[in-house]
Write a structure and sequence with these properties.
Pfam family, one: MBOAT
Structural class: mainly alpha
Number of domains: 2
Oligomer: single chain
Distance between the termini: 15 Å
Radius of gyration: 23 Å
Strand content: under 5%
Helix content: over 70%
Membrane topology: Multi-pass membrane protein
Subcellular location: Cell membrane
Protein name: MBOAT family protein
Number of strands: 0
Shape: globular
Number of helices: 19
Keywords: Acyltransferase, Cell membrane, Membrane, Transferase, Transmembrane, Transmembrane helix
Amino acid sequence: MFQTPEFFFLLIISALLYWMLPQGRLLILGIASAIFYGWAGTGYLALFFLMAAATYLCSWRLEATGKRGWFLFGLFLNLGNLIFFKYALFLLREITGLTGLVLVPPGSIMGQLVLPVGISFYTFQLMAYLTDVYRGEIKVPGFLRFWVFISFFAQLIAGPIMRGRDFLPQIEKIEKITFDKDLTAIKWGVFWITLGLVKKVVLADTISPLVDWHFDRAAWIYGFQSWLGAYLFGFQIYLDFSGYSDMAIGLGKLFGLAMTRNFHTPYLSLNPSEFWRRWHVTLSSWVRDYIYIPLGGSRRGEAKRSRNLILAMTICGFWHGAAWTYLFWGFYHGVVLVLYHQFQRHSRKREFKNIPPILTVFLTFQVITIGWVFFRAETLTEAWIYLSHMFQNFNIYQLIFNKKALFPVLLLFLFHLWEDRFLKNHPHWVERWRKLPAPMRGLGYFLIMVLILAYLTQGQQSFIYFRF
């Protein structure tokens, strides 16, 4: 949606009214967000509004009475809504497969259920809000402020999953946000939006057909070619999802609002634990705070810590979709994290600490890449076939013969490295950019926009995480 002309029209009108009418900002953003989400379907909007209103009512009664029942009822409503639309059909079909009982007749209403856009994201945000009210960490705002908090179109469909303690204070003071006359916030907003568009439209959508080619031929490709397809998918999903998140940051800045950065160049991680601190940060922290820690975290011994890690990551995987592939992907990462923590314990004893960082980054990337096979494959059978082929017929001669095919992966990794260096030291890079002659900078802006527009005209692909 972010890359469509209709969205940019809505954005421009909303931003102009927002800055022209400070006292009407809540209403402007509330209506704009409803239009944005309602564009996918009025039924989706009605369901979302109903769940938001019910959750707000539960939080209001919870704060007023202190009764735990309102908290549990609110969680039950949100989980029930998510399970019904996302998992009920999957569970019924699995039961049919095991027992032979036809629980979903062809043409029935259940068989025609369509997953509401962004339901996983807004459900987790509603549940986190309700939990934070229950814990006394946030106060219940007025309903319009709550609606803007939960529905702000920059992050509604695919995150970041904003917490009440981070976003509600900004909403509370939204009428007092002043327009930045030197346009610093606007410029950075445009930068983040442009970066997101380049990632999504120019890079991720270009990689997509190559990824499809490799995974459609899972049974016929081996060794280096299988690894190449998995590498390309790893970058495709990163560029697609982080592109959306970058645009969300930029959109927030256009309205003077700070959105949580969701990705921190995760493929430069030194270990699997660091990867999950840098990949989909708001979901990782959500799983930690609302699943892993309540299960007991690391407080009850190593065995239970391992159990909690595997369980939390398996739930995280299943959150992504009603399929065994997603569940196994989460389980795989849980096992990887357990093995890494065990390695850490032993490395402190045996002092295995002098491994060069470039090697640990490389090894971590391979581990993550193996996991992406389960995420991308349509079935577990296809995933196992693809994965087994990655370790067959692989030799140095195959790598040398196909070295040119690795060139796109190397370019993508260089882009990843540039992104990391730029965002860690952006004042230096910005200063160097400003020292360039104005015509040269103007030409650079022009070429970037021409590049984006050229790729937009070739057709638009939906963001991968819209299906979750």
